[in-house]
Amino acid sequence: MDLEDVALFRAIASVGSLSAAARQMGTTPMLVSRRLAGLEAELGARLFHRTTRSLSLTPEGEAFLPHAVTLMEARESALDSVASGGSGLSGLLKITAPNVIGHSIVVPVVAGLIADNPGLRVDLTLSDGVIDLVTAGLDVAVRVAVMKPSDMITTRVADNPFTLCASPEYIARFGEPITAEDLARHPCLKLHAMESWPFTRDGETHRVRVSGPFSASTVDAVRAACIAGVGIAMLTYWDLHEQIERGDLKRIVLADVTPLEVGIWVVFPTRSHVPGRVRAFIDALRDRLQAAASHGAR
């Protein structure tokens, strides 16, 4: 089996079209179609449903995809073990991360790795949504979450508790809530994905439904509205720590509940050999978060 054909199959599954895969692989749609047909003939199965307007994996294609990923990872690991011997990290590292942490934490981390490893290339996708690593062909994801069991490998690199905050100007005008019930009397600024705010009370999760004049799809927008004095926001510590340290925002502590503790995790597909560039990224990310936390102690 030609591994270039396997790489082509993985690219098509990732981008969802033959023409886009051709652009990504630096070839023509005709050649992509021909090589895909050859791979399907070798496997004795059709891998994609193809029409003039859409392309999707067949059940056989879905079954073959994780094996294709494993084959490509084994090749990359083998090349990495040879090529990076005495010359540092090399190859392409594909990462996804949330927007705010991506800009403030991940970009400086990868900038340092690239400076120390001229043979390393990084492709970073910033998204506050959850991207499927296998389908998108990504090496590693940085996620802010309470992680649930899955078939992925997860590593916690930092604590990241939810944090209530408001601008000093807002607090001077309207005061602070004292208990969770008091939040009903304040304008609350919401992320679209958070209809209620998660707390813990007596060891159990306690969710509080909130309302207010402003909601948004990104952390940046909610944080900006909070700094402007529109209301109270609940975001995570690493989304707010610089603004709290500068005095643009003030943390609010409620008497009867504690904001839910979440973490910053790195997630990567299950594999027998993790490339050195992935391990180096995880270590560098952890080091930067620990250093930042120690300088701006919570």
Structure overview:
This protein folds into three domains: 1-83, Winged helix-like DNA-binding domain superfamily/Winged helix DNA-binding domain (Arc Repressor Mutant, subunit A, Orthogonal Bundle), CATH 1.10.10; 87-157 and 266-298, 3-Layer(aba) Sandwich (D-Maltodextrin-Binding Protein, domain 2), CATH 3.40.190; 162-259, D-Maltodextrin-Binding Protein, domain 2. A five-stranded mixed beta sheet has the order 4-3-5-15-6. A five-stranded mixed beta sheet has the order 11-8-12-7-13. A three-stranded antiparallel beta sheet has the order 10-9-14, with no helix packed on it. The protein has ten helices and 15 strands. Strand 3, helix 5 (99-116) and strand 4 form a beta-alpha-beta unit. It is of the alpha/beta class. The chain has helices at residues 3-15, 18-25, 29-43, 59-83, 99-116, 133-136, 168-174, 219-227, 237-246, 276-295, and strands at 48-50, 55-57, 90-97, 119-126, 140-145, 152-159, 162-166, 188-191, 196-201, 204-209, 214-216, 232-236, 250-252, 258-259, 263-269. The mean pLDDT is 86.
